[in-house]
Design goal:
The protein is of the alpha/beta class. The protein is built from 4 helices and 8 strands. A hairpin with a 6-residue loop joins strand 7 and strand 8. The longest helix is centred in the last third of the chain and has 23 residues, at 194-216.
């Protein structure tokens, strides 16, 4: 009986702590690894300019669906534009209740991260990615609209499941059809600490680069 009580106590402690890695009630600022982003510049390929990247995610005050962006504290409605531009996840406790936030490190934004990863994908697809100032006379212009960039968790008894969505709509000049790039990454973790958030978002960005490179190959 004593052994059983000890096991149940350990299980309860573990379950209550699953969402508490990095302190579930506080705000974390994380640095993504950036691994795989620095794809070599293609030489002799068609010139592409990423003309704009716009964050068009819709934040809600208290959404029922954890995959919908939201913020703790006074909520998304009171958060600054700078805070929303860096927000990438919402922490939850062992009952699934929304708690603190996960933000990109200061100086980084979701728009900037998407631009970096889209640039990498285009280089991987064989394009010469340049700034507009030195693009020459007839580049391909791409305007990206960010529909989703969010990570969330689903609580479980022994582990949590973290998921991350990244989705963009790409408007492409030259009569090319619009391209939608949408990916989801998923992984299990014992503790939803900062490193777990970084890992699942990095995984989603790897998938994003692969899909974006595939879908943009052969532009006119």
């Amino acid at each position: 009986m004593k052994y059983l009580k000890s096991c149940l106590l350990a299980a309860a402690i573990a379950a209550s702590g699953l969402m508490a890695g990095g302190c579930a009630v506080t705000r974390s600022e994380v640095k993504l690894s950036g691994q795989g982003v620095e794809a070599p510049q293609a030489s002799g390929g068609r010139v592409v300019v990423i003309r704009s990247v716009r964050d068009e995610r819709a934040f809600e005050q208290a959404p029922r669906d954890p995959s919908t962006p939201s913020l703790g504290g006074d909520g998304a409605g009171s958060a600054s534009a700078e805070t929303r531009s860096r927000a990438i996840a919402r922490k939850r406790n062992s009952f699934g209740q929304a708690m603190g936030d996960v933000l990109l490190e200061p100086g980084k934004t979701v728009e900037g991260v998407v631009r970096e990863n889209l640039s990498s994908a285009l280089r991987k697809a064989g394009y010469d990615v340049r700034d507009q100032g030195n693009a020459g006379s007839s580049p391909i212009f791409i305007d990206a609209r960010i529909r989703k960039f969010w990570a969330w968790l689903t609580p479980g008894f022994w582990a949590v499941t973290l998921r991350a969505n990244v989705e963009t709509d790409l408007a492409i000049s030259g009569g090319n059809p619009a391209v939608n790039v949408s990916v989801t990454a998923e992984q299990a973790a014992m503790v939803a600490g900062d490193s777990a958030w970084i890992e699942v978002i990095d995984s989603a960005l790897r998938l994003y680069r692969d899909q974006a490179a595939s879908k943009t190959s052969g532009l006119k």
